[in-house]
Write a structure and sequence with these properties.
Layout (H helix, E strand, L loop, with lengths): L3 H12 L8 H10 L5 E5 L5 E5 L5 E8 L4 E7 L4 E7 L11 E5 L6 E7 L18 E3 L5 H7 L6 E4 L4 E2 L5 E4 L2 H18 L6 E8 L8 H9 L3 E9 L19 E6 L2 E2 L2 H13 L5 E5 L6 H4 L8 E8 L7 E4 H20 L11
Parallel strand pairs: 3-12, 3-13, 13-17, 14-16
Antiparallel strand pairs: 1-2, 2-12, 4-5, 4-9, 5-8, 6-7, 6-9, 7-8, 10-11, 11-18, 14-15, 14-17
The chain binds zinc ion.
The site of zinc ion has 6 residues, from helix 4 and strand 13.
Length: 360
């Protein structure tokens, strides 16, 4: 059984609107759910959020989950009241048309609902993907003056709009921005768990990172600030369990979180990877070894800090990742929480050094 307050947390995180550089609403949700009597919480000027256990240890574990979602900025307002888009993060034209979005006016904080449209030229091949640059948001305003009166300006953020719903099997949770809000929720749960524990060797710092979707920028600054001894990155990865997915049938929803061994920007630290896999086996927790051949995570920035930081990414399978409605599996999230709890407890008892390298 998954506690209702955890599902509430996931819902609030999903519904928060926050593209790269505008992570405020997610910082607010996280702050609201953190056990603030027992954890220190602050942020830096870049927008990263830090949650820290009250220990006074030399060694630090950093747990990162990014707060920004893929979305857009208002690029240009037409005389007849339509908003052209500047994508923030990777978008595929196929998933955009007809999607409901929210425009947040930074001037007055008002939120306006709209739909993504395009005027389809007669000459265009109907089978071709339309470039998001050809699309606009229709917020139902008669002209530019009405847009200005509403307080909407270039640079305002546009985010997908969707409700969070539990699907036919209640473990399947549909919503927007699960990349990476589901992992923000997992990070919060881990921090609250360890708020009540006494650790021997490590302090834990949970970080809600900023600006991941535009090139893992916030985590670079966070790693520099914290200089962790070990970093664990939590991020989603596209599930390959859907019709016509590729031949590696991995990231199957409901079959456990992923221990990522490779992504395009970082090779995971193998001692960490094997240690986590052993912890999973010992505690009968499902997991899937994973390789992210299509992209990177915050690990790409963090592991290159200073002399190099032992870093691993733990992944959660997600269907329809960069779209207005993705699906994750609640048991996978629960198992990732359990795995992190057991692993950190074991690490805290362990004499394992991670920075030893073989030399000739
Ligand atoms: Zn992500």
């Amino acid at each position: 059984m998954i506690a209702e307050d955890r599902i509430d947390l996931y819902k609030k995180l999903s519904m928060a609107d926050a593209v790269a550089g505008r992570e405020k609403e997610v910082r607010e949700v996280i702050s609201q759910y953190i056990d603030s009597a027992k954890l220190k919480i602050n942020n830096d000027h870049f927008g990263n959020l830090y949650i820290q256990t009250h220990g006074n240890h030399q060694k630090k574990i950093m747990i990162a989950a990014h707060m920004d979602e893929v979305g857009f900025l208002v690029r240009y307002i037409t005389e007849d009241g339509f908003l052209y888009l500047q994508p923030l993060g990777g978008w595929w034209g196929h998933v955009l048309l007809g999607q409901t979005v929210t425009v947040t006016a930074r001037k007055n904080g008002n939120k306006y609902r709209g739909v993504i449209g395009t005027t389809f030229p007669r000459s265009t091949d109907p089978n071709k993907v339309i470039d998001p640059a050809m699309m606009y948001v229709d917020v139902g305003a008669p002209n530019k003056e009405a847009i200005m009166e509403a307080g909407i300006q270039p640079g305002d953020m546009i985010t997908p709009y969707n409700q969070v719903e539990r699907l036919t099997d209640q473990n399947y949770l549909m919503g927007k921005a699960w990349d990476d809000r589901i992992c923000c929720g997992i990070m919060v749960s881990i921090m609250n768990h360890f708020a009540n524990k006494v650790l021997n060797q490590y302090d834990i710092i949970g970080v809600g990172t900023a600006q991941e979707e535009v090139g893992t920028r916030g985590s670079k600054i966070a790693a520099e600030k914290i200089k962790p001894d070990i970093a664990i990155v939590l991020d989603v990865a596209t599930a390959k369990d859907t019709p016509n997915a590729d031949r590696f049938r991995n990231r199957v929803l409901g079959e456990g979180p992923g221990i990522v061994l490779y992504d395009k920007t970082a090779l995971s630290h193998m001692v960490l990877a094997d240690m986590i896999a052993d912890v999973a086996k010992k505690n009968d927790l499902p997991f899937q070894f994973d390789m992210l051949s299509g992209g990177g995570t915050d690990a790409g920035s963090i592991h290159l800090n200073g002399k190099g930081i032992p870093t691993i990414t733990l992944s959660l399978g997600i269907r329809y990742c960069h779209s207005g409605a993705s699906i994750v599996h609640l048991e996978d999230a629960e198992n990732l929480i359990r795995l992190l709890q057991y692993f950190i407890a074991e690490l805290d008892q362990s004499k394992q050094e991670f920075l030893e390298v073989e030399t000739d």
